[in-house]
Amino acid sequence: MTDLLLRLGCVLAAFLVLPLLVGQAEHKVMAHMQGRLGPMQAGGFHGWAQLVADGVKFAQKEDIVPAAADRRVFRLAPAVALLPYLVVLVAIPLGPDELVGQSLDAGIFFVLAVLGVGVLGSLMAGWASANKYALLGALRTAAQLMAYELPLLLAAASVAMAAGTLSLPGVLDAFHWWWVPWQLVGAAVFFTAGLAELQRPPFDAPIAPEEIIFGAYTEYSGLRFALFLLAEYAGIVVLSALTAVLFLGGWHGPAAGRLGWLWMLLKTGALSFAVIWARVAWPRLRADQIQRFAWTALVPLALAQIALTGTLRVVTA
Amino acid sequence: MTGRELLSPSGQDVVFVLVGLVTLGAAVLCVTSRHLVHAALWLVVALGGIAVHYLLLTAEFVAWVQVLIYLGSVVVLVLFGLMLTRAPIGPSPEADSRNRPVALVVALAAAGVLVTLLVDAFRTTWIDLDTPHGTSRQVGDGLFRAWVLPFEALSVLLLAALVGAIVLSRRPGKRPEGGER
Prior knowledge:
The complex is a heterodimer. By secondary structure, chain A is mainly α. Chain A contains 12 helices and no strands. Chain A has helices at residues 2-33, 50-60, 71-89, 107-128, 132-163, 168-173, 179-182, 184-198, 209-212, 222-247, 256-281, 287-316. In chain A, α1 (2-33) crosses α10 (222-247), α1 packs parallel to α11 and α8 (184-198) packs antiparallel against α12. The radius of gyration of chain A is 20 Å and the shape is globular. By secondary structure, chain B is mainly α. Among the domains of chain B are: 11-96, Up-down Bundle (Four Helix Bundle (Hemerythrin (Met), subunit A)); 135-170. Helices cover 69% and strands 0% of the residues of chain B. Chain B has 6 helices and no strands. Chain B has helices at residues 11-32, 36-56, 60-84, 100-122, 136-146, 148-169. Chain B is globular. The termini of chain B are far apart. Chain A binds chain B through residues 68-70, 73, 104-106, 109-110, 112-117, 119-120, 123-124, 126-128, 130, 135, 138-139, 142-143, 145-146, 149, 153, 165-166, and chain B through 35, 37-38, 41, 44, 60-61, 64-65, 67-68, 71-73, 75-77, 79-80, 83-84, 87, 89-90, 132, 135-136. Chain B: It holds the Pfam family Oxidored_q3. Chain B: Belongs to the complex I subunit 6 family.
């Protein structure tokens, strides 16, 4: 029992710390890529406490619910958007020898299923705001989710086929280095589709500030808005960690017995960096371009990856 | 066997009944709510409750598939459809049809058939909850060895539905001159 509580406590700590690190990294990385400094004042050294200051600011702001809004759904939406990421972190292995919150038999299905629930939060927010921009954002969110859920699942299924198991620690136990080139297409599809599900640039048409203000989150202020932002950063952490586990070998690396957790964190961090980089590097895709990209590029690529995986499995078996 | 009487339920039995009550309540609210989107959200609670039931019966794989397909996709599709057509905030009484009595009869008939079938099929079978019965390996073995024919029949059915949906959405007659679009 104490063991379980300790594990859950560690997962909660990771959930509270890692998204903030990614958020701070986004401030600084974007700034330096754009030839500026980013936050420099809060906390003294290179503005390390900027997100803490932001949090204090959000907590002080008035929590406004529009008069025409559906109050209960409006208030519930941020929690529905954020909690799935906390739940998902429980199943992601950090190191060898059961260094995981809870080892699940169908872990891949669990994480993808629970991640899909988070989108309900955006939909609830968009509808309950009684704002046409919010509704447009929610519509785009739903359309995007339905388009990208399929390639995401297919790419993950390819890894499950290669490993012969649906459990995330099991996938890592079966990992060999040559999986990386073998599953490379699947990894690209998974990461791209994950980006689209998080609505990160270049797939951020659902929140596109220049067109529809801030999509489903337009009417939010104060802590509830901060929760949506936190959900976005937690989503980056979860997507990077999942990609690292499924396609990059998670804790595998030199001296994995002792330093496995470090490898896992490094791979997660590198992928999070790539997510931030994508925001600076690419312009936003239009909603119809996003749809076409999913159905005409990612789905066929994911199917090709599954065919390749299946062929190699049968040939080598 | 000791500990298997209805009058001395274990913790799991109690949780099962409680989750069942929540599911039932959410389902009733789903069909009685006058707010269209609220009905869809109550559907989320009801379907989630069923997933928890699968978990309690150690059918882990089926539970996650339930969450993935029904909560993650079907309900999102329902909400998408509602938002795309009309989903005003507040009650929408014009959405009520006069088919309520018919719907009630159909629902009761379907429930009666299913309950009779399940009771007749399992009668007093007890399952041992300490050993998992629904791991992905067991489900896969069952699905692709014993039940592969129904599985294939279902996939053909789904394919037919897919083709049918495409045919319906093509709207013949509204095609512009020349045919190509």
